[in-house]
Amino acid sequence: MVLYIDPGTGGMLFTILFGIFGVAVFSIRALMLKLKYRVSGGKSAKLNDQKIPIAIFTDHKRYWNVFEPLLDEFEKRKQKVTYLTCSKDDPFFDKKYEYITGEFIGEGNKAFSKLNLLNASVVVSSTPSLDVFQWKRSKNVDFYIHVQHGANDISMYRMFGTDHFDALPLSGEYQVEEIRKLEKMRGIPEREAPLCGIPYMDAMKKRLEEAGPVPEHDKTVLMAPSWGKSGILSRFGEKLIDALIDTGYRIIVRPHPQSYSSEKEMLDNLMSKYNGNPKVIWNRDNDNFEVLRQADILISDFSGIIFDFTLVFDKPLIYTDTKYDISPYDASWIEETPWTFKTLPELGLELNEENVGNIKELIDKCIEDPSFGKGRDKARSETWVPMGNGAVLTVDFIMQKYNEVTKKKSEEAAAKNKEAKPSKKKLALPGPKA
Question: Is residue 195 classed exposed, middle or buried when 0-12, 13-18 and 19+ CB atoms within 10 A define those classes?
Answer without folding.
Answer: middle
